[in-house]
């Protein structure tokens, strides 16, 4: 069983924080297939948050195929995120290193690199949504 | 789905003073509704109208499909925890429960006893000897054991310290799940409501400034910064809530259903607090209708 926490200054909505914490726990192996997530009642009683926030987070996790709700019993983990993408990390990191070296050679300082990355990251994310 | 609260042109006047004017709302059941606004904005008046303690001067209001206070069945459906969670100082905790059982036909005694036990309150303690947080929890217990479909709370946490405030809201949210309650609670502090509410009404100067699902409110309000511009020349579907200008730059808070495409603007997200403050500081505008219901 895991326990959720909320960071009010994270800028992320509470529902998204719960989704991420479950995904993170799956990635780290803290949650495994068959584990039960805390009930909505348990989460709201612990965090003092709106019940619909928890329901929305659980629905999204269910939609992503990570958990399944069994009515009257609880919400259970049905998948794992461990290692699924790990193999791809190495080559991606190398490419990113090469790109960073290129950016520095072009005269970008840390702040400019970060800004360029974040704006590109956001635009691509938005394009994917649209 | 039935509405938990529906108001149409609702108004309340005390003598010459309108405490609430032209209030139109349609709130579906199953929400935890936050009513936020400065002191004296009309929050208590609206809540009193909803539980039937006051008759309206103008317009109409229905709560869970019935006229507030109109029948014993209606009274049983709506629980009310008044401002500062009042209790009877001279009565013991047990006597409060006895009183609750006497006054409410649907009283759930097991629920009341269970809650009191979990809170660690001694049944023999007098309410006057309890801490502020314990008194608030006792008042909440009375409201919940009545087994209402809607619980209305007027500034329930205003007088509590942060720990008692958190514990109170934990109990309230747990009960909302357990009893499938709709909840309406008021506060003059956004931070009290931010975590627990999923529907918000902003009430300023006796008028509803904006009402809607929290997420939709946040998704339809944006902060725009860019080269100085006359707000009157924005696209027609962008409503300016607040605007400030320097000689070169304009910063606007706008509400719009459509995405903002103008590349001159840097579009920023706003927090709930920013949103509420913008509506609170909005100059009174007598020509435009201030009720900005966000479409579901």
TrEMBL record, chain A:
It holds the Pfam family GntR. SUPFAM superfamilies: Winged helix' DNA-binding domain. Residues 12-80 form the HTH gntR-type domain. PROSITE patterns: HTH_GNTR (PS50949). Gene3D superfamilies: Winged helix-like DNA-binding domain superfamily/Winged helix DNA-binding domain. Keywords: DNA-binding, Transcription, Transcription regulation. PANTHER family: GNTR-FAMILY TRANSCRIPTIONAL REGULATOR, HTH-TYPE TRANSCRIPTIONAL REPRESSOR YTRA. This is GntR family transcriptional regulator.
From TrEMBL, chain B:
InterPro entries: AAA+_ATPase, ABC_transporter-like_ATP-bd, ABC_Transporter_VariousFunc, P-loop_NTPase. It holds the Pfam family ABC_tran. Keywords: ATP-binding, Nucleotide-binding, Transport. GO terms for molecular function: ATP binding. PROSITE patterns: ABC_TRANSPORTER_2. This is ABC transporter ATP-binding protein. Residues 5-230 form the ABC transporter domain. It comes from the Bacteria. SUPFAM superfamilies: P-loop containing nucleoside triphosphate hydrolases.
